Records
---
Amino acid sequence: MKPSTKDLAKGTMHEVKGKIKETTGKITHSTSLENQGRAEKIAGKVQKKVGDVEKDLEK
């Protein structure tokens, strides 16, 4: 698997995990968990962008 594809997959995974944490934090009124979820979601989006850039550079 190419590095760009790995970054895209990992980024998507982090986004999903982050969304789950964020939602769980909202439901349980845990601002800490909600903030962790937001941070992980953002990290996932960044990692996906890195994968996009790598994919463009491979062409």
---
Amino acid sequence: MAENSAADDGTRPNARKVREGLVVSARMDKTVVVAVIDRVQHRRYRKTLQRTSRLYAHDEANDLREGDRVRIAETRPLSRQKRWRVVEVLERAR
């Protein structure tokens, strides 16, 4: 039969994405906006570019402030725009 080692040991077959970013807005209730910066190389000119993605993340404790560095993980859809949740706070804003 087909080998299904991922399901046998209890782990997910496709690991959920994890990103690190900076909280740019914390004005909503239990929601923060996290700016994730990806460095990509231009296809033709090979120059390094910064691409910024603004991701909506769930903050259950509601204790994050603007400027905090956080780690977020992909999760099931929590609302129309929220598909991420805060896993841990890496650094608090000064």
---
Amino acid sequence: MNIKQYYLACLSHASYMITDDASKTAVIVDPQRDIDEYLRDAEQGGYAIRHVFLTHFHADFVAGHIELREKTGATIHLGTRAGAEFAHEAMGDGDSVEFGQTRLTVLETPGHTPEGISILVYNLAKSSDAPEAVLTGDTLFIGDVGRPDLLASIGVTADELANMLYESITEKLVKLPDATLVYPAHGAGSLCGKALSNETVSTIGEQKKFNYALQPMSREEFKKIVTAEQPEAPDYFVHDAILNRKERTSLEESMKKSLVALSLERVLELAKEGAQLLDVRDAIDYEGGHLSGTLNIALSGKYATWVGTMLSHDRPIVVIAEDAGAEEEAVMRLGRIGFDNVAGYLADGMNAVNHHESLLRSTERVTVAALAELLDGKRPGEPVPHVVDIRSEAEHARGHIAGSVNIPLPRLEERLAELPAGPVVVHCEGGYRSAIAASVLSRAGRNGVMDMVGGFKAWAASKLPVESDAVSTA
């Protein structure tokens, strides 16, 4: 028996293949929607993928259970509370699937979601009593537990889920043997919790020592601590949680429909009809020259998260890419989060725009040294810009440029009227989000927009003055 972890950094998502050599059976747990890796590895090992488990209906991505069913005929397994549209085997506490020297036994562990399960993995060649591992989905992370506040809009309160989570942790998971390996469905960077570790595997014993949410405490203390200071969840989370319950189009079918080369004229027509123009190039290329009205979310960063935050899943999207093949990656990664609303991509990328100067825009990039001089009035004749910090409120509170206005990126478009007149410099922590922000302002018709290169990290590293809610340093 072997457990292989697949880690998708863009979504901080871990999925798993459990293989059994005696029966040549493979099981996939919490698959991503693009399933080629699983198919390739199973074929190379001579395994047949016969089962797919979802620990719950994920909110931050569309899972690949439908795709695996279509390609392999695998049975889909869900918790008893799932109630999905598609055919599946509902499994409750103690229900098992056994093959060769491997047994998978379900623990119902609601809390992050009502239908959440964990999967005990037994290597029967070693022990039929003590599990070797537990795949905890989003109930238990390394260093954290799943947030219970994501489903209020579809009828389940945070308080109800927090009560379930407390019981799942205290009555089931912490009672497993200390040596049991813990494999969660997400790691650091996921918005499904607030304090996830960079580690992607641990043990029950280690989590009982070091996970804040597994320390002895009352139910009310637990509920208070796990609901406090959770990050803002993107709007697309509810869309994906609902989509994962449904019978739907496969990613392969969706991409066939979406990978359509469009002329510049057609792209401009679609934009007039309300299509969203998405430029996926790196900021330095985008800001050097881009098509008017586009939003820049680069493939090189947390692309899926920010696409899901800044774009709508029910309006057409047109992709603008530079390198050959980048448009296919951009569309596939949109599909990972259920954005199947791509109308096509601009044929020949920015080369199609280069001879249409009236359609071209650029964004000024400013170094931290140059900005410091502007703010100190050391550049006579040049206006002093307003600094807009588009990081989260918590990031801004820990340290910021004196006098900066804090408008978190997800709220920027709805709060444009709050921006002062005159030139504006936007910044984030490292430069990725500020490029998105600059494109939002440019798309809204704002002039005099500058993007601070390197973000707040570069400002602080240059020993320039920093303020926090409590302290000012120079």
